[in-house]
Write a structure and sequence with these properties.
- This protein is an alpha/beta fold.
- Helix content is 35%, strand content 23%.
- It contains ten helices and ten strands.
- The strands form two sheets. Strands 6-7-8-3-9-10 form a six-stranded mixed beta sheet, sandwiched between helices. The chain has a four-stranded antiparallel beta sheet with strand order 2-1-4-5, covered by helices on one side.
- The longest helix has 17 residues.
- The two termini are 31 Å apart.
- 38% of the residues are buried.
């Protein structure tokens, strides 16, 4: 479902701020893989998601999604393959538009626009039933402006929008980091349910080692723009935070020095 082949990306080349963000990154995801991604600041986590999304061109390598080489495609053309939820609940939705209008836009992602009526009665019923599954009371607020929702409600809505038209790949970019612990747990619960029910292939970036261990069928750790740990199967199921720290120290030759990850 996803192949990243020898990906390189350097920012500010030839300047004092030159940064080698991705260094020969290779990653393969089978259909149905739910992979959590962890690593310190500057490890290349969000850079990897931006490369997949086409936010900017990579220096070299190839990106293949669902059998299609998308390396040269601009961001808007990759929208047909991808769903993405960002860390900031304000991103991913149009604040001044109604809940039903946001869902209508998501339903048409990657499709040609027409001059037909924007939302049909059949669509409203569909949105009502889908929102009911979130258990947040949004099904009776279809005409509410999205900007009036709480951060957790907005992230849950964004998750629904990102998967309304089944994407080849779902990207979750620290999508619970800006939420309080209770709300974050609710959004993660919704994420797990949608991924399982829709049999989606997903990449979830997180700074929380416990979340990385508890969710998904596979865990990868990045350092200096490349994967240094790739853990799945029975090994992941029995993994603890202490195990993960020990594995990092063994592979990297140093202890993990990242307050955000350790405090989480």
């Amino acid at each position: 479902m996803l192949d990243l082949k020898n990906i390189y990306k350097t920012f500010n080349t030839g300047t004092i701020n030159e940064k080698h963000a991705l260094n020969g990154l290779n990653l393969h995801l089978d259909p149905g893989d739910f992979v959590t991604v962890i690593g310190g600041n500057g490890a290349g986590k969000s850079t990897m998601l931006n490369a997949i999304s086409g936010v900017w061109p990579i220096d070299s390598g190839a990106i293949v999604i669902n059998g299609a080489d998308v390396t040269a495609l601009p961001e808007y053309k990759r929208a047909a393959y991808l769903g993405r939820v960002f860390q900031d609940p304000m991103l991913g939705t149009a604040a001044q538009m109604e809940i039903q209008e946001n869902l209508a836009l998501a339903l048409r992602r990657g499709k040609k626009r027409t001059l037909r009526w924007g939302i049909t009665g059949e669509e409203r019923e569909k949105y009502h039933e889908l929102l009911k599954t979130l258990d947040l009371g949004l099904e009776d607020r279809l005409t509410t402006k999205v900007g009036l929702l709480s951060g957790g409600q907005r992230q849950a809505l964004t998750l629904l929008m990102a998967t309304l038209t089944k994407p080849a790949l779902l990207l979750l970019d620290e999508h619970t980091a800006a939420l309080d612990p209770k709300t974050a747990a609710k959004v993660l619960e919704i994420s797990d349910r949608i991924i399982e029910e829709e049999k989606l292939t997903a990449l979830m970036v997180t700074h929380n080692m416990r979340d990385a261990i508890a969710h998904g069928n596979r865990l990868i750790m990045l350092k200096d723009g490349r994967i240094i740990l790739d853990i799945g199967g029975a090994e992941k199921k029995s993994l603890t935070v202490e195990d993960l720290l020990a594995k990092f120290a063994s592979v990297a030759g140093e202890d993990l020095d990242n307050d955000r990850m350790l405090l989480n």
